[in-house]
Amino acid sequence: MGTSLEPRESQVAEVIDRLEDEYPDSTISLVYSNRLELLIAVMLSAQCTDERVNSVTADLFEKYETAEEYANADQEELAADISSITYYNNKAKYIRSSTQTIIEAYDGTVPDTMTELTSLSGVGRKTANVVLQHGHDIVEGIVVDTHVQRLSQRLGLTQESAPKRIEQELMPIVPETHWQQLTHLFIDHGRATCTARNPDCEGCVLEDICPSSKLDSEVDLASGEPWEQ
């Protein structure tokens, strides 16, 4: 039976325990070697797969090495360099603008506070959280991407749909020591098993505690729609 544990803190603890066994090496999949590269990679990853981002940044990070080089890049040329990425024109503008701000306001160094990071063009709380966690070893929130959103809803941890509200609901029930790792675990499980359209509920290590399980439930709590039969 797919029945979530009560209270939600117990559900979270069991979910984390099982997923850590399932994905013992779970970590960020973006490839980078410094904070600037991390920032650029995360900006590019919005609504785009990490695999695609890594294929693009392999050449991008060789061509552009400093904030000055990004800020001074020709818009059309930079857009062409990332043209296989979704919304590449806008992302090229964001990169040029944000690196210009980094130069002018932060002496060319990627800032280390949520307020400063989210002041950069194209950088929201999700991107800032990733940069803080993996670039500065500062964990002050939970990164809520599409996988975290979907799994949190399916597992009965939240009924919210906006990432900021989901983060606000998760933070009190997830131990702070697991704020960072929860995201990686949910991403790995979302890719491997709990996919958006056709999750493998029969092979899922969380099936018996998932109120969205297709084996028991008629409705996907993430979409609110009936499961396709």
TrEMBL record:
It catalyses: Hydrolyzes mismatched double-stranded DNA and polynucleotides, releasing free thymine; 2'-deoxyribonucleotide-(2'-deoxyribose 5'-phosphate)-2'-deoxyribonucleotide-DNA = a 3'-end 2'-deoxyribonucleotide-(2,3-dehydro-2,3-deoxyribose 5'-phosphate)-DNA + a 5'-end 5'-phospho-2'-deoxyribonucleoside-DNA + H(+). InterPro entries: DNA_glycosylase, Endonuclease3_FeS-loop_motif, HhH-GPD_domain, HhH_base_excis_C, HhH_motif, Nth. Its cofactor is [4Fe-4S] cluster. Its EC number is 4.2.99.18. [4Fe-4S] cluster binds at C194, C201, C204, C210. It is an enzyme of class 4 (lyase). Pfam families: EndIII_4Fe-2S, HHH, HhH-GPD. Keywords: 4Fe-4S, DNA damage, DNA repair, DNA-binding, Endonuclease, Glycosidase, Hydrolase, Iron, Iron-sulfur, Lyase, Metal-binding, Nuclease. Coiled coil: none annotated. Residues 44-192 form the HhH-GPD domain. Binds 1 [4Fe-4S] cluster. Belongs to the Nth/MutY family. This is Endonuclease III. It comes from Halocatena marina.
